[in-house]
Amino acid sequence: MLRMNTQEAPIVSFLKEVMRRCKCLPSQLAADLGVSHTTVSRWLSGADVPSTKSCRRLAEHSGVPLEKVMSIVGHLPRIAEAGPPEWPEFREYACQKYPAELDEDLITMIEDLIERRRRKKYNAREGS
Question: Torsion angle of alpha carbons 102, 123, 37, 7, nearest 10°?
Fold first, then answer.
């Protein structure tokens, strides 16, 4: 589940969570999305929001459904949280279930593998 700060605009919290999960800086996110660093900075400051085109790229990059991203940005009405979250919190589960077996490095490695699998599935759907 996305952990968003309730004090921030939803898009700001979402972008920070995407960067945390992808382990990237704003400049890398900008490069990945094909926008300028200044554009991402405006989004993170709350001065601007992504366009629909940028929302599509953000959805592709994050693996979050486009409708959800558009809702977070404000282009669509808020979507109620229903069903399983897009990003289950593996880290929390692993720490509770296997505290002695999994260290921080192993958990990070497994999270990376989960993210790669999600991207691979998404890219396979895009190609068909």
Answer: -60
b/e per residue 71-88 (b: at least 16 CB within 10 A): bbbeeeeeeeeeeeeebe
pLDDT digits (tens, 9 = 90+) for 60-103: 988 888 998 999 998 887 765 544 445 557 777 777 788 888 88
Structure tokens belonging to residue 33: 């999305």
Rounded-to-integer distance, Cα 38 and Cα 41, Å = 5
- SS3 state at 7: coil
Contacts of 118 (CB under 8 A, 6+ apart): 63
Contact 62, 50 (CB under 8 A): no
- Asked if 77 contacts 84 with a C-beta cutoff of 8 angstroms, the reply is no
